[in-house]
What does this fold into?
Amino acid sequence: MQPKNSTFSERQAASVAAKKALLEKFKPKPMVQAEAPINHEAERLRRLEAVRAQRLDEKEAKQRAREEAAAAAEAARIAAEAAAEQARLDAEHMSDAQKRAERKARKKEVKEQAKAKKETKSVSRPSGPKEERVVDPFEEHKRYIASLERGRERRRA
It folds into this structure.
């Protein structure tokens, strides 16, 4: 907004000054020069080499871990084979008397189990007088004939 009591020449001068300021805004300004120029290509190569070195270190660490795991597995396998061989040698060196004693102990245990089973079976059976079964001769004859027929069928098949 222009003041009301300004003259034409003042307004014209202000307009020219505003246009000049507008043009000055678009003109290039003097640059500040760095003391030493920055070599961006060298900086990029340095970062690239750092990343490559880091990846190479990681790869070598993984390879060492794999080799250590393989060595540990091989050592465990060798230890297991040695233990199995030692057990086999111990079994071979066991005397005949020890083998015989072990066999007797096993047989004794089997006999005790059979005896216990027999006692359990006898306890579960009633020990009272047995009931006399009334046999119907006609039914006995039917059963006998049926068994003969089953025998014939088996021989045919």
Remarks:
- The mean pLDDT is 87.
- Residues 42-119 form one domain.
- Helices lie at 8-26, 40-93, 96-124, 137-156.
